[in-house]
Amino acid sequence: MVTQTILPLRLRDARVRKNGRVIVGPVDYELPADGFTIVIGPNGAGKTTLLRMMHGMERLASGAVEWQVAEKRARERQAFVFQIPVMMRRNVLENVAYPMQLHGSSRKQARAEAARWLELIGLAEAAERPAPVLSGGERQKLALARALIRKPEILFLDEPCASLDGRAMREIEAVLQSAHSEGTRIVMSTHDMGQARRLASDVLFVHRGRIHEDGPAARFFEHPQTPEARAFLQGDIVE
Amino acid sequence: MKKLFLSAMLMAFAAGAAGADVMKMAVTTSFHNSGLSEILLPEIKADLDLEVQLLVVGTGQAIRLGEAGDVDAILVHSRPAEERFLAEGYGTHRTEIMYNDFVLIGPADDPAGIADAGSATAALVAISEQKIPFVSRGDDSGTHKMELSLWDGAGVGEDVRQVEWYKQAGSGMGATLNTASGLNAYVMSDRASWLKFGNKGDLELLFAGDPVLFNQYAYLPVNPEKHPHVKADLAGKLEAWLVSDRAKALIDGYRLEGEQLFTFNAGQN
Amino acid sequence: MNDILQGLLEAGRLVVTLDPDLIEISIRSLEVTLSAVLISSLLGIPFGAWLAVKRFRHRRAAIAVLNALMGLPPVVVGLVVYLMLSRSGPFGVFGLLFTPAAMIIAQVIILTPLIASIAHQAMREMWAEYHDLLISLNTTRWQRIKALVWDGRRALLTASLAGFGRGIGEVGAIMIVGGNIDNATRVLTTAIALETGKGDFALALGLGFVLIGLAIAVNWLIHILSRTEVSGQW
Fold first, then answer.
1. Under an 8 A CB cutoff, do A88 and C143 touch?
2. For chain B, what is the radius of gyration of the CA atoms?
3. Inter-chain touch A80–C147, beta carbons under 8 Å
4. C30-189 adopts what CATH topology?
5. Which of A24, A38, A59, B104 is most exposed, with the fewest beta carbons within 10 Å of its own?
6. Could you state, in order of their start, the residue ranges of all structural domains in chain C?
7. Which chains have 3 or more CB–CB distances shorter than 8 Å to chain A?
8. Along chain C (234 residues), what's the average pLDDT of each consecutive run of 10 residues?
9. Could C233 and A130 be called an inter-chain contact, meaning their C-beta atoms sit closer than 8 Å?
10. Cα separation of C74 and C62, whole Å?
11. Out of C30, C86, C100, closest to residue B70 by CB
């Protein structure tokens, strides 16, 4: 099966307004077809809204979010892991199987594929447990498996490790790195500079709703180009 | 689980689609409360293989049911209303079947002294003059209409019947008797409903026997020319049975607490 | 007090002797109300879920109307259904008046807004929870309703049971459209009204206790069948 790639993603003069105030934008940016992009920036900079805007979940006040294929088809090739993942009121296996069932897979097929993913991320033992009783780390793993099960071309993650302990974080990172090595484009926001350095191939620095700087991770961390980025890396900008 | 629901529904609808030998008859509460229907209906079923479904309502509603064609026949006791029903073409004819009588009930100590009254009229006048509480059906039923005609006959007009003592219950005979029992008030009832009534409290039968209190029941089939769907043939079969010697024996023979309630008089007028 | 005691004794006697009339009217009560609850649930639950996921101009007004309809007086519903189904009414040709079907129709009108409204409350909460995921997964409106209804089925069961509770104890509408015909449309509530009218309080109260017992039994049975009380089970 040959599918035309949906990447690169192009944002043109894209703006999101809430309560009469522009909180993100204007953004003009092209997200390259390959890489592991980490979105960083101070609290309230608009990282979440930027990711949601790319994913098509925010109404644009102006501009456009353009993929290489029609919007509806592009959406089906994306996945999103929210900071607080939605635990559907069913068991773990059925949560992971759900996206497959939406797209015409039989219940049996979907469950088999979901079981394989649970094995992969180390949740196999919890398969029959109700999802809402899982711990924070388990929830993120479930959400990750559910996002990856349809093999998206691009995966967005909004601070997936925000409240996890070190072990759970490393498990998540391992899954993300292996997904990336198998060709999944990843765009993820984080607060954790260590995590950013470990994972990023390139960085988007967001401040006050705008992309101030973007480029290869090594360059960004060693030689930030803008004064805001420098201040941020030195810990001078927190908000 | 769903199958059970569905089959229950189908049953419900099947019961709605009436079979060959089922007819509906509107009767008055007083007739039904007498218990006579429980004697007659099984016999009708046995003799005619006809299931008569009774709608127990006041005369006013019984007549409305006949006018709307929602029943096949009515058995009621209010002559003027029956004649209007016929005149407007809703019924084919009127056949008198039997009569029972009304009685005056009141508190055992009889504050108005109606037990010794010479006539029903005198009894009502005594109640109204002393403004002793009286509960009326107030529901446009045959019994209610009979009561109103008695008040009119006694010269006690609507203006005299003040709410302080004249209470309109707006309900069936049993509920009205319950109200009278609760208020310890006078009330007019058909004899059968009174005998069958289970909550007599302090009430007693105080006055009866005046011929103006006789209560004629008549059977009126609904006119199939107005309502082509009515089961005129079944209504005819039932009528033939109701005026037969078989019905006469059952009606005259019916006893409640040792008292004869109904007198068969079909074909006598 | 004595009346109540006699009522309890009468209820015991009716149940112990398996009084055939009691069994007949109890079964009819269940048939009518369960049918009405089933139909009302099939109408009300998807509608409630739809209202939760669909944004449209007069949505708030529609919800207000729905909540107001919960308070429909059964007597008025009964009267309107009666006039509709009467031989001289618009649906008279079907001959449904004074049949269990007429009673079901009246109860469906009474129960649907109640079930839809409770379902809407439950679905609205779940939709707030599921919103991001279902939007992100690019679901159709129908898929969203399906997911909410399926995952919220315990809460929706409560909506249906509330409908059952209202329906099984309802007398005003079914008395009018059913006519309380012996062996045809008499149910527990109309029988209670009848016996009260006759002044036979013991029998009326006995039937009342049977009715309460039946309502409790149905609720309990459904909870057992759906295992709502088993913790950790989904």
1. no
2. 20
3. no
4. MetI-like fold (1.10.3720)
5. A59
6. 30-189
7. C
8. 79 85 91 96 93 88 91 93 90 89 96 95 92 92 92 90 93 91 89 83 88 92 71 46
9. yes
10. 21
11. C86
